[in-house]
Design goal:
Distance between the termini: 43 Å
Order of helices and strands: HHEHEEHHEEEEH
Oligomer: single chain
Length: about 190
């Protein structure tokens, strides 16, 4: 009788574990759809793509909050473009709560110590960092837009072109690109 109860308990635990694993599987076809594409950024060229990657070694929060996938795309424009470089990064988690915990735990690291600035709402939670700074007599404008959409955490880094002919990069432009990411994530079946 005890053996039968133990077997029943093991089967019950196994079925719960299997159900939990099934919920955490990520459809990589849908996952690839959440990244910006050529149609979103027609003036830029895709540089680096690493959509299914391992997190940085220093990123202990990814494992702590049961991260599933991390990936990025790097887009390059010219020195004359308002947006000369764009890093498009994603971290996927099993649920919204894990993603929110990761988002909050990694704000400092993902902002790369840039100053917090006021921003418009983006996704389910967001923060923006950066602005204009001078280095060696050259003005640089960089923004880090960090946001979460359901179980996906996003980092969008944008850097302005260095040419005096380029228009000043404003956070609003970065957030417009961020809205395209939000729409892609909401349309994907993750």
């Amino acid at each position: 009788m005890r053996l039968l109860a133990s077997i029943s308990l093991l089967l019950l635990l196994f079925s719960h574990a299997s159900a939990a694993l099934a919920k955490t599987d990520v459809d990589t076809t849908e996952y690839r759809k959440i990244f910006l594409s050529e149609e979103d950024l027609p003036w830029m060229k895709l540089g680096q793509t690493n959509l299914i990657s391992k997190p940085d070694k220093e990123d202990v929060s990814f494992a702590r909050f049961h991260g599933q996938l991390v990936g990025m795309r790097v887009w390059n424009g010219s020195n004359e473009d308002t947006v000369m470089r764009l890093n498009d990064i994603r971290w996927v988690f099993p649920d919204d709560s894990s993603a929110e915990s990761y988002f909050l735990a990694t704000l400092h690291d993902n902002s790369e110590s840039a100053p917090l600035i006021r921003s418009q709402p983006l996704g389910d939670d967001n923060r923006a960092y950066g602005g204009s700074l001078s280095m060696g007599g050259m003005k640089m404008v960089n923004y880090y837009s960090l946001f979460r959409v359901a179980r996906v955490v996003c980092k969008l880094f944008a850097s302005q072109g260095y040419s005096v002919n380029s228009q000043i990069l404003h956070l609003d432009r970065v957030q417009q690109i961020g809205q395209q990411i939000v729409a892609r994530i909401r349309a994907a079946h993750l």
